[in-house]
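Here is one such protein, fold included:

. . .
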Amino acid sequence: MAGRIALITGASRGIGKGIALELARTGCDVMLTARDRKALQSVTDEARALGRKVGVYAADLRVDAEPAGLVAALQREFGRLDILINNAGGAGRGDFLKLTDDQWNDGFAMKFFAHVRLSRLAWPLLKESAGSVITIAGLGARNPVADYMIGASVVGASLAFTKALADLGKRDGVQVNSVNPGSVDTDRLKHRIAIIKKKTGLHDAAATEHHRKELDITRFGEPEDIAGLVAFIVSARGRWMHGSAVDMDGGQVVPLRMSAYD
């Protein structure tokens, strides 16, 4: 994929960082964005050490005008776009009866509306290059639960939007897919393990194993697991994948089983 240009949102840490560095290893030059300028600089240094050209645009994509600023910066830096990775954003947990409108609006602002705006602005560039879009969505919509209502709703909307965008992509020659990571070793998982430690009194390794058994998964993922899948999808070998929503979760999502009466 030498010479291709990839834009990755939420690129300062976790899955976004993993994807940025994996695409850089495959030969892509990368445009990185996130809110944390200092953390972005660290990723920038690593990508440049791989011999890649790197553009940086620190921004809060919840702000309506920032996606346009990002695409303008991309065009100044590279003049084209081949791969868009919509990764930024997440939603917290909480009691439905205590969640405020501001919390709901904030949950949708980053992981849904920012993705919509950025995809719309980048679409002419992707159409010109016969490029690819991947949304890093999640498992929340597969099995919605009461204490993750915002996250499940946002992911559900993101999956529907990305599937509809894939329909447009068939007409315009742009590949579009979603990837749904399970429990990956990021700051969010570390926070969850810390809560388990506090509740149970278990130490790090025991608390981590306790949570793995709770989820009934083979192991926790690494950002590099998701990054490898993304790199395959946007490569020539993965080009036939279109309109897919791929779970990569160590077996976390279990299909509904038929009852004895079905």
